[in-house]
Amino acid sequence: METKAFQKIYTKITQITKATCSLNAEGVGYEELASVNGRLAQVVKIQGQNVTLQVFGGTEGIPSNAEVTFYGRPPVLRVSDDLAGRFFNSFGMPIDGGPEVEGDEREIGGPSVNPVRRKQPSELIATGIAGIDLNNTLVTGQKIPFFADPDQPFNQVMAMVALRAKADKIILGGMGLTNDDYLYFKNVFDNAGALDRIVSFVNTTEDPPVERLLVPDMALTAAEYFAVDKNQNVLVLLTDMTLYADALSIVSNRMDQIPSKDSMPGSLYSDLAKLYEKAVQFPEGGSITIIAVTTLSGGDITHAIPDNTGYITEGQLFLRRDTEIGKVIVDPFRSLSRLKQLVIGKKTREDHPQVMNTAVRLYADAANARTKLENGFDLTDYDERTLKFAKEYSEKLLAIDVNVDTDTMLNTGWELFSDNFTQAEVGIRKEMTDKYWPRKK
Amino acid sequence: MKENNLTRGKVTGVIANLVMVEVDGPVSQNEICYINLEDVKLMAEVIKVFEKRAYIQVFESTRGLKIGTEVEFTRGMLEVTLGPGILSRNYDGLQHDLNKMDGVFLKRGDYTPALDDKKKWSFKPLAKEGDSVVAGDWLGEVNENEQPHRIMVPFKFEGRYKVKSVVPEGEYTINDTIAVLTDQKDNEVPVTMVQKWPVKVPIKTYKNKPRPFKLLETGVRTMDTLNPIVEGGTGFIPGPFGSGKTVLQHAISKQAEADIVVVAACGERANEVVEIFAEFPEIDDPRTGRKLMERTTIIANTSNMPVAAREASVYTAMTLAEYYRAMGLKILLLADSTSRWAQALREMSNRMEELPGPDAFPMDLPAIISNFYSRAGFVYLNNGESGSITFIGTVSPAGGNLKEPVTESTKKAARCFYALSQQRADSKRYPAIDPIDSYSKYIEYPELQDYIKENISDTWVDNVMLVKNILIRGKEASEQINILGDDGVPISYHVDFWKSEVIDFIILQQDAFDPIDRSCPIPRQKYMLDKVLDVYNTGFEFDSFEEVNPYFKRIINELKQMNYSEFESEQFKRHEKELYYIIDEKKSA
Ligand SMILES: Nc1ncnc2c1ncn2[C@@H]1O[C@H](COP(=O)(O)OP(=O)(O)O)[C@@H](O)[C@H]1O
Ligand SMILES: [Mg+2]
Fold first, then answer.
1. Domain with CATH 2.40.50.100 in chain B
2. Distances (CA, A) of A160 to A111, A156, A170
3. List of chain B residues with pLDDT < 70
4. Residues of A with Cβ-Cβ distance to B103 under 8 angstroms
5. pTM, 2 dp
6. Above 0.90 for ipTM, yes or no?
């Protein structure tokens, strides 16, 4: 990103905080990009002559006579097919040693799709993971995060889902990614021979945190290029959105805004929604699907970050270690795919909705039985059977290492029902049981 | 109004969508102005005035805006355009027609007209020469999607007028003069089919607003049977994310017995609006046989659309509803989610550095919410006809905790409370309305009780009370069982618990995606209520508590199969018969 010739250089900074600095300047546009002693910055507030800049690299060591120049435009990304296979930093600069990408300049954080120009999502994304395909089916154009504690293998599961999803392009937006995780993603994509389908924008733990704020917009601008200009199915992976939100709060707190719940800015909902709503199915065939990661602290989903996320996204996939089977499962209670009803029983077998709901209900009965047991009470025969069912259900369907097709998942479901319960206890529509209830061997 | 008298100003500051403007003349609170940013005009509203400085909230992105940019004030407040052609349209929060905008992406400043000024409507006069009229009186009507759309004396007209002439039956556009009125001073005023009205001001052309008393059928059992809402009533649905607020509202919008449905998608997901766009033109309205879209208007300000227009969107929706109510129609108004509107107010108030109230929401939030809810209601018009706006809003409490300002303020304003419970949603007991915490204040209205006695049955109201008691008893029994253990309580506790489970599974739970179960008309609700009360009123004998659960599971299963079957079909009757066989098995002598 070069500065234009004959630019005015300002050298009198009036105020410096951890993430921002202010100066008097003229002719500056809102959200315009600037450089402060070579560090990129963006206009976040204009009051008369006084302009406040958010300095992405942080203000450490910035002197009050730092050189400030303005770019006359908001941050942009150059887009073309040459993006494919490349790794960039938060500013869209190559970090893989390759040349800068030539192409059209697109402003990042651009306008929203007119809702009447969207198409209703209807293409199922098969992952082979029953905790997803059976209980929380994903659809192209959906936006959904993994909710997981930091010790859960969310990046591994996300990479696995991405590779099985048959997307034309996978765009990785890494925020506060550890170097190990960055190399992990690079490796799996490389090993899968998928590198030429991947575009990555990465901010690692070694980079300044405020830089992260650019990553999702960079990733989504690239995604819009492939989905709109090239009609491709694009999958965007954003990890970790909790670190993104933390960066938001750093900036807003430095600007003396009144924080709302959990010291997050009052605009957190709108800020996150603007990103997640970029997920879309276009009528021309292109689509943007967003799979994100929101790490939790101690499984608390009432914290402002997961809470606002849940209100925005089309469901969430909750990862949890099931101690009984010693494996990570997609928790059927807290997980949800809101778009599943667009495809289940339509693109999948007719019994899908009922099998899914019934299994989860029986799993809930098992949870009650477990409480009883913990409180030292005797279990009824029904309780015992639900516990047995729950264990088998966890092992054969919920565990993330399951990789089968949807019909197999449904058949397994019916097997588990008939092994443990009567038809009346299962309570599924009669036409379905007549057709699918396994005959006793 | 002469152009050159209008106030102008220059931008002096920008913080996101809050812009400060130095003005050269008078400005008023809530006045609309336009910022001339390069080749587009950005619409904005005055939200605070301090000396020569106006604080305006911009309904668009302010990217690129510079100090010194020109601003033109209009003297008018934010207004909607009222006339035939509103139905079936998809508007943004400021009533711009989304379908008329070019391109895939929204462009700022792309302000499309709300109505079609070319279309001809076949007009039939209702008033005649010499009639004395006031604002809101009907002058004529046109046919809008097979509904009578009354052309009224404009709401802004003050005092009495005399009808000088009305055009004969014929085809007219919205801008053609359809009547000439004369005021007290004999000045002639032409009237067209279109008028404007400021959204923040309630339309009050009705004669009076009595307490509502007619049941509004929603087809959702747990609402109609347990906590009914009325025509002209208010209700709200708070619940954590994923608990079923939107699915419930969509179900109500499809099934409720209303002439017109106005949906305000306020700061929520675009795909949920797309679902309405995709489905409503296909689904039949069981009452008219026409498509649902023909009676529906959608105001879409989804979460990624400009925040300031979110607040406007609910007012726009309410004003459109008031317009149709003045025609003597039954309107259902839905807003999902009113919390997003409150958050938009909070964002703005924070940017203006106002003294914050609880959770940083503006201090006057409770007043704003109750003012809004008070615009709903059942009214009698001057001509003796009636109209109503039933309003149901969702609330999205932070962290699912109902002790937060938006929920608490709404609780004071709305008369029905449909609390969605996380626990019920987790165990897929949809709709997840908590039957015990939720309430309808209307059920206590003697007017409604009389109405139900006359139109549904004598015993209905008593049965509703009975059902609530059974549920409470069931809950207590289950708590005792959890404390003392299955064999630590008398068998009757198990029976009490399972009798309440029968009600839960058969009346409360309803699959919104099942082609038959999703809508349950009142006669069918009554029939099923009688069935579960039959079960309740039967004395059963069991040898051990272990028999209770499997036995009631069978009862529930038969009743559930009835819910899944076409009402009174062969299949339905077969399961009903089976049900009574099962009941007889354990019936005490
Ligand atoms: N009545 C219902 N029947 C079946 N499923 C339901 C019902 N209500 C909600 N659901 C399920 O719960 C999900 C979330 O519902 P939604 O209304 O979108 O929640 P909210 O608006 O409260 O966040 C839906 O996608 C659907 O899977
Ligand atoms: Mg919702």
1. 121-193
2. 31, 6, 12
3. 1-4
4. 114, 117
5. 0.94
6. yes
